[in-house]
Amino acid sequence: MSNPRPYWNPYLAGIGLGLVLLLAYVVLGTGLGASGGITRLAVAATHTAAPQVVAGNEYLASYYASGNPLSHYLVTMFVGTLLGGFLSAFAARRIQLGVERGPTAGVALRLSLALVGGALAGLGARFAQGCTSGQALSGGAMLQTGSFVFTGACFAAAFALAPLVRKEWR
Amino acid sequence: MNLFANGQLDTPLGLLLALLVGTGFGFWLERAGFGSSRKLTAIFYLRDFAVLKVMFAAMATAAVGLQVLALLGRIDLDALYVPTSVLWPQAIGGLLFGLGFVAGGWCPGTAAVGLASGRLDALVFLLGAGAGSVAFAGVQPQIGDLLQAGTCAIGSIPANLGISGMTGALALTGIALGAFVGATMVERWMAKRSVA
Predict the structure, then answer these.
(1) How near does any CA of chain A get to the CA of B52, in Å?
(2) CA separation for the pair B70, B77 (Å, rounded)
(3) Which of A140, B17, B22, B195 has the highest CB neighbour number within 10 Å of its CB?
(4) Residue B152 Cα distances to B69, B138, B148, angstroms
(5) B99 shares a domain with B23
(6) Which chain A residue lies closest to B80 (C-alpha atoms)?
(7) B25 and B110 fall within a common domain
(8) Predicted ipTM?
(9) Are B67 and B13 members of one domain?
(10) What is the pLDDT of residues A82-107, one digit of tens each?
(11) Size of interface A-B (CB pairs under 8 A)
């Protein structure tokens, strides 16, 4: 197994990411997004498992108002994000199966916090109508006040909780 | 071009172009090292500010690019889709999201890249994120009014400050450059402290 290659310079990667965001605005007329695609996949999974739950809730049913919730640009963008991540990780020899965690953290702790953290992030993204991609980056590039409110609140909460989950990471 | 304004985002052409844009997005996230949850969360322990550097550089690049293209008449900023800026939903959502970010180690886009890199914790995070998104349906009826733009719309920063979009984009770039210097100083200080 050969060694993974070093990451690229963060400023260079940031400019590359910014140009992709600019391209999204020019071509698609909208910015980047990740949580919207996840939401649509989750609503479709709920519909498959328990259609009455989706039909009985106005918010969930709204995803079916214009047909299949999966034939939406945010779903293919999410698939693209997986694909692009895979291509880059493969080329840099960074594909590694495992559970990433700090040196003293157990797998059970890490996976439980990943699940709880994912749920909080998913819920928060629906409150805010977007995540770090759709709100922070895309709205921020359009100088939207709410995007900076979101980003500020996000980092404040994360820094506040960080000491309590230190064992998971350091 | 603007597929959104033409109502073509969810046509086969729109779906394909969004797939390609997403591929570029995932590529750059992975190049930056964001397929690693330990690298992403290192900012919260002041060890590695790559998250701040990449986000600010991306935001400033796109913000200035958008304003330049608008001045050249190549893009109509008013025809782009942007989520409505609403104070309370975005403040509360940001707080919940931040807790999830540091506890879960990912955000939705980087978790996709982490999963593509073989990280099982990213898969679990994504399953949690899906559950959290659907759970929103449980509170949405109670807070529907809160989410209405009319009650707490806060618009864009240039409009609120009475400055041009270009001035706003350049100010953002200036703030980003200042943050880069500050972040690098903190990184060096922390590195020296952990050696001593």
Answers:
(1) 9
(2) 7
(3) B22
(4) 30, 22, 8
(5) no
(6) A29
(7) no
(8) 0.98
(9) no
(10) 999 999 999 999 999 999 999 999 99
(11) 547
